[in-house]
Write a structure and sequence with these properties.
By secondary structure, the chain is an alpha/beta fold. Helices cover 41% and strands 13% of the residues. The protein starts with 6 loop residues before the first strand and ends in an 8-residue tail after the last strand.
Length: 139
């Protein structure tokens, strides 16, 4: 990228980088916070060389991690003695709910990656885009 004088890097962070710290996922949250910081630093270093660096911070995404047979919802459901759907509803409610009422899809995250990697966003760098269905209530 440096040799050609252009390029785009899109890092996948997480709302865990700045959402209510949780001792159960301290390593994950710290790593994602570091990635957001690295994104900003690299954008400053490589922006003058034509390389854009941005990040995306998804909230819960409808993948096996959350919704699979051994995912978060199923694991919490087994621990609480309820089915996975009930556990998922409780988890979402405990997080404060989503304005859209649903998890983000992998395709929605991929669409945002494509947009940030494209020339349509040629002057966007050092940004962190949140895609979380309205989970994060602050600016």
């Amino acid at each position: 990228m440096v040799q050609q004088g252009s390029g785009a890097i899109v890092n996948i962070a997480s709302v865990n980088a700045f959402y209510q710290p949780d001792a159960a996922t301290i390593d994950y949250g710290a790593a994602k916070a570091a990635l957001v910081n690295l994104t900003k630093s690299l954008s400053q270093e490589f922006g003058p060389r034509g390389i854009r660096v941005n990040a995306i911070s998804p909230g819960p995404v409808s993948t096996n991690l959350w919704l699979g047979k051994d995912g978060v919802a199923a694991t919490v459901g087994r621990a609480d003695g309820v089915d996975a759907d009930t556990a998922r509803e409780r988890i979402v409610a405990a997080m404060g709910g989503f304005a859209t009422g649903r998890f983000t899809t992998p395709e929605e995250v991929a669409t945002l990656v494509l947009l940030l990697a494209s020339e349509r966003t040629a002057n966007v760098t050092g940004a962190n885009y949140v895609i979380d269905g309205g989970l994060i209530k602050t600016t």
